Amino acid sequence: MSSEFARPDGRLPDQLRPIKMAVGILDRADGSAYVEQGNTKVIVAVYGPRELHPRHKASPEAAVVRCRYHMAPFSTRERKSPNPSRREVELSKVIKDALSQTIFLERFPRTSIDVFIEVLEADGGTRCASINACSLALANAGIPIRDLISAVAVGKYNGHIILDLNDEEDEAAEADMPVAIMPSFNKVVLLQLNGVLTEEEFKQAFDLAVKGCMEINRIQRETLRSKYLSIKGEEDEDV
Ligand code: ADP
């Protein structure tokens, strides 16, 4: 690798941005989570399983996941219209499809599980940060899931394969590929590629994404574990 290669924020090619995660941050939601990956900040609220209205949209076989990905008007450099863009509609759908793979939907017929994603600050990788926050919020709501989904983007920037692109890198990248996996099942639940990669580069990028997802998965588990331990600590004090 060329020694002249440098990322705008000085990270190594295989280095994630600093991560912060928290769960149970909203009192009114059944489950909630906050995720920060560098300057990208998202908050997720989950409600349900709950009776679905209008009833004709309910399924007698399984819960229906409804998902809204939304960027706050102040989340981008130029004010973003608060109305849903085509991009937001598409992201809501691909995130819903990913989440539907992990939730035991068939256990909750005729109900809906409603997932609200609010991007507070967008600096690249918002769909991945959203997915990471969604799986934490689902777990926090006590909704049975098969696995915590973990997601990160990889890409090609100045000829190098890099992990976890920020907005500046994303804009200049030759390729950008968000990946979400269910690690315990070796299952890919989202993979999108903008740009061009050779087969060799694709393999290298995918392996790097999986490595990044595994590190994110470890932090997600640790976040849930420390929340559970702090609740248990409070309950023990009450006894
Ligand atoms: P992701 O956020 O998942 O990487 P994109 O590749 O579509 O999704 O967007 C990359 C980045 O471009 C976003 O994280 C955000 O910083 C910026 N961006 C996206 N949409 C807008 C918008 N409507 N206005 C300004 N910036 C935007």
What ranges have pLDDT less than 50 throughout 5 or more consecutive residues?
none
Q: How far is the first residue's CA from the last residue's CA?
A: 59 Å
Outline the biggest β-sheet.
5 strands, mixed
How do the strands of the widest beta sheet line up side by side? Answer: 1-2-3-5-4
> Which ligands are bound?
adenosine-5'-diphosphate
What is the helix tally?
4
Computed CA radius of gyration, to the nearest angstrom: 18 Å
Helix content: 25-40%
Portion of residues in beta strands equals 25-35%
What structural class results from the helix and strand content?
alpha+beta
Q: Report the count of strand segments.
A: 10
- Shape label: globular
Mean pLDDT over the residues: 95
Order of helices and strands: EEEEHEHEEHEEEH
Describe the structure in brief.
This protein has about 240 residues and is α+β, with helices and mostly antiparallel strands. The chain has helices spanning about 85-100, 125-140, 165-170, 200-239, and strands at about 20-25, 30-35, 40-50, 65-70, 110-120, 150-155, 160-165, 175-180, 185-190, 195. It binds adenosine-5'-diphosphate.
